[in-house]
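User: For a reading group we're discussing how well predicted structures match intuition. Take Cytochrome c. Before you show the prediction, I'll give you the sequence so everyone sees exactly what went in.
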Amino acid sequence: MKKNLVIIIGLNIVLALAIRWAYNVELSMNRQESMSEVLKKKYGQKSLPATDHSKFEILQKKFDTPQAVTQACISCHTERHKEVMESNHWNWEREEYIEGRGVTYLGKSNLLNNYCIGASSNEQACAKCHIGYDFESTPNFYKKEENVDCLVCHDNSGEYMKGGGLAGLPAGTVDLGASARHVGNPTKESCGSCHFYSGGGNNVKHGDLEEAQTDCSREVDVHMASQGVDMSCVDCHSADKHNIKGKLYSVSSANKNRAECQTCHGELPHESEALNTHTAKVACQTCHIPSYAKANATKMSWDWSTAGKLKDGKPYSEDDSLGNHTYMSIKGSFTWAKNVTPEYVWFNGTADHYVLGDKVDTLKAIKLNELFGSYSDGKIMPVKVHRGRQPYDPVNKTLIQPFTYAKEKGKGAYWKDFDWQKASEIGMKEVGLPFSGEVTFPKTEMYWPVNHMVSPADKSLSCADCHTNSPTGRLANLKGFYLPGRDGHSGVDFFGKWLLILSCIGLVGHAGLRILSGLKSKQA
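Assistant: Thanks. Here is the predicted 3D structure of Cytochrome c, as structure tokens, for the group to look at:
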């Protein structure tokens, strides 16, 4: 009777657990479907522009200059250009507070990267990704309202594009009138014209932002998938008076005005309490973006020290099987990767940067941007780490801003004359810093938080991806905290093992004694 009762109780417990599990699975699926439907309703239905600009008389003429288009725009939108001229996109700098530096101004004028290095002295080329025309690195430029480029963000014709080496002017083939008559909210393509191609090509810099996302599957990006929610960049990166939400930590330092997952998904997005406890120390991106560069490869390293090789006196390039440059005479050697597993860091939303003129040693790789954070104040964040070698003045102990771009030979630009000393001298003079005449190429690193290319829920990381003592575990190299399943203490482990062994011995011994006692009782 007792045996049957135990079996019945056991079956009831198993049945209850099975029902609970099935309920949780169904609830989770319904929740995911519900969130998907909410996002589809909110972002899937693309609103039509409130105004049809093709009917405006002022836009029916032929425009000879892009500045004339801007003048037409601000004749109606009388204050918008003033907002643009206060924005980071226009000024290429912002006031930031950095721990250890205090309040400082940061931007493309005084920061370096380990891709094309820096914009200073190279504005003719770099201004292809500036929201202005006829870019000059002088204070007067930033006051010229007619040079605000409205079309680069608001063109919906799909035909507008900046020209190469034209200081921000549009390509000569652009029909300015047609673009002006077809304006609306920024699209993926208009945002991507700069952000997809930064660094000189598709997906070069970010790894999680590229042209495939204009029409991709849910496996590549659940938010931007054309057959899914089909969100646009501005759905998350909304703007208030042309101040766009979001931070790019190659040039940003402050933990403010960030575009975050919690805006839509909340602080506790899971049905599982165990998963929700992770959100205090684990960024959403860590589990939900298990890899980046899913459609096209991204650049993982750039070695400027090998640049300058010529064939028959002429520059040349070499490509891999996917068509990615692995060597260019003007830039050096590159490596690429696809479906990349991120590296992980503690991140609290603040960062420091190498600012032009900072003196650094080269005993270890120079961090061009250092993401701050620890277990006490940050969250685990996935990052792309881009590694490189770039020009450095070993006498002054400063990284070099070289002059790289010119339209013809003889001006000292490296891409034309292949002379590091001359290019460095001109570039450093442009930024007002000394140059010793010596050039070496130390290692550098840049850290790019991975925020895009969110995977479907069933492709997220599992517990075992992180909670493992395998050297290939996702968090094997992240220090500063105790991680169950990965970490241990030899003394505690030794004590625990022997406690388990002794418990087993005691259990077996106790059972044996009970059996012997029972046998003796029967014999008696």
